[in-house]
What does this fold into?
Amino acid sequence: MNDKNKVNREPTFWYLVWLFLKISIISFGGGNATFPIVKKYFIDKHNWLTEKELEEIVIITNSIPGASVVETMSYICFKLLKSKWKTYLVIIIALLPHTLLFFTIFILSVSFLPLKYLQIIYVAVIPIIICLLMNMTIQYFKKGQQVLSTWNWLIFIFSDDLLITSTQS
It folds into this structure.
């Protein structure tokens, strides 16, 4: 994206609430499925993060227990707002409608829909999540080819093979 297309908007409390509300509503694929959207807004559009920071967020949030969407929101809000309490409020406000909507849909669907319809919905959502994750994997693989040496790839392949072999035993 061109630098002239970037919006030089100062991050405000309510604008971050709005962005994370949008992200949390479409985050049914889990945290990793939201990273392309985070990249679109926080790197491409507003230039509030660098690509390196986003890559580090992906690594860290996948390394520690917990919901990576919440961990990502926490990092970004604290970085931009520099306030622990505003960060807490953004997360609570952004996740509350999403959580209430989810529980309402869950209770209504379990109460009124036959199990076969719920299975069809589940089967329809999984391919979308897989496509989003594959897209992100391909992007990181392309970047990895540029910076990783042959030795790095050999170590990766060998360690992956050891992991598969050890789990089959």
Remarks:
- Residues 61 and 71 are 6 Å apart (CA to CA).
